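Following up on my earlier message about cobalamin. Here are the inputs again, as you asked, copied directly from the submission form:
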Amino acid sequence: MDAGVGNIARPKSPPQNRFLSLRKLLCAASFEGMPDIVLATINAKFIHAAFGLRYLYANLGDLQSRVRIAEFDINQRPVDIAEVLLAHNPKIIGLGVYIWNVAEATEVVAAIKRVRPEVIIILGGPEVSYETESQSIVQLADYVITGEADLKFAEVCRELLHDRAGTECAPRPKIIPAPLPEFSQLKLPYEFYDERDIAHRIIYVEASRGCPFTCEFCLSSLDVPVRAVPIEQFLGEMQKLLDRGVRQFKFVDRTFNLNIATSRAILEFFLERHHPGNFYHFEMIPDRLPDALREIIARFPAGSLQFEVGIQTFNPQVGQLISRKQNYDRLAENLRFLRNETSVHVHADLIVGLPGESVESFAAGFDQLVSMRPQEIQVGILKRLRGTPIIRHDTEWQMAYNPCPPYEILQNKLINFATMQKLRRFARYWDMVGNSGNFVSTTPLIWESGSSPFSAFMRFSEWLHAHAGRTDGIALARLMEWLFEFLTTEIKSGAHPVAEALWTDYRRGGRHDRPSFLREYLPEDETVAPSRPMASLKRQSRHLVQSK
Ligand code: B12
Ligand code: SF4
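Thanks, got it. Here's what our run produced:
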């Protein structure tokens, strides 16, 4: 992105109309032409561009020239964010609130209301679209527009600016629901990704909104009906992005493979225009992959397609409890197809802590998924998202969630707190070892002796925790050493095969300096590997060399 109005910790961007560095902004603060409205959010990381904000901006109509976008990330201090926002001297601040930023956003709003209480603050976004009555950020703000506010934001701002101009309107409620817009009413926002967004950030795109499924843990289960962007219009916008140099497209559609004709048209569009280095990410349901899609998916070159496949549970009773129907035979067959007959990078999701899911049943699901060989398995900890119907199980399954975001499950009837903590560590270490692509050859050695992947990795996870005492900030070289120690002393694998697997993994990313602890086990004349540094290789590319 552009460093964004508010990204004061970021490298300076060329001055542009909507985006200014803090220094320039503070200098400019006393000049004319300050925006009446600042539209802001705090992204999870700098690399994530705020797509929703761009939709709001695109649909401002005649107000657009009076609005600036300001993007921040959660590593910035709330008081600094407040300073940048106020330096615009706006009449209205619109703030996008999500699960990842609600704590920081609350501090920003609190600071602004202390310093400049007359600035009108309008909140929006999924985190404040439900259970508004219990949220302190809502109490601090002036208005909340719930739901998809693409059109409603402009309407409310117009009324408020009109009020300020001296014409009083009828008093409006604090909580303002936005009617669901149809895409035919909306301007698409892609031109508002600027050159810096294109060069440095993830470009999100959307061919549809809504999901017809009813998984009770998921906010999208409330987003019905499904609405699609007219395909010609959508592909026209994708062409413009390709022409501007976008190479990576991340689709946020809840279920990409819902309408097969549309999915196929989109895949065909990108395949026809494919250049090496292009990359497309889609979220999909695993049990729906008819031949019409299979045929085209198989034609995508290695490293170009990534599917995020939500499985969540392999336990049909749990699936039933959370209203998620899944055909497990078809799911298995589709994953087999993806791994054996395509080059798709498969990122499959499982959830720990669902009602009715014991450790044993989760373990069986994990083992089953490992046998299907997706490149990545995301072990997610259940979260109680505001507005989701999962709360209907709270009493029966004794669901205890953390009251602070991201509201993760702490314990339930089947999994006590201590065990849940073990599973949380398992998830974290699995991400560092199993998913990172740094240990593609070494990871299977952990369960080589024939035990279940889940129990073997759990043993490693607890051993590593006892040695490292932490689940973050572990350097790659140190982690390698620990893996070596665990495999040779605990599992009693031979030092030479373990060293070879680690060395293969290490060199895969382009490194060739031999870690000292491996030297005595490696042949002297080991040839030097390619010189590309590990850091330049993406996680997905490291998995590419995994044998099919
Ligand atoms: C991209 C994305 C991310 C990115 C972050 C993006 C960023 N900017 O920083 C990443 C990958 C990091 C991420 C992570 C997570 N995410 Co996420 N993510 C999404 C995703 C796929 C797309 C968001 C998007 O662009 N949508 C399209 C735009 C058009 O919609 P929108 O953003 O909702 O904006 C509309 C409205 O919300 C509103 N609006 C937005 N801003 C504003 C501002 C104002 C002033 C107003 C009035 C209105 C308004 O109007 C917009 C236009 O209609 C959504 C699912 C989805 N398809 O929406 C989930 C989603 C937002 N994520 C969700 C969740 C739960 C998570 C995780 C907790 C998942 C996890 N790992 O377990 C993590 C949290 C990470 C953390 N650090 O804590 C939930 C949201 C829950 C919540 N209450 O916020 C969603 C909805 C998924 C779901 N179905 O459950 N996520
Ligand atoms: S988990 Fe996936 S399929 Fe289920 S409601 Fe959410 S987006 Fe839809």
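One observation from looking it over: Residues 211, 213, 215, 218, 220-221, 254-255, 285, 310 surround iron/sulfur cluster (ligand 2) (CB under 6 Å). Hope that helps, and feel free to reply on this thread.
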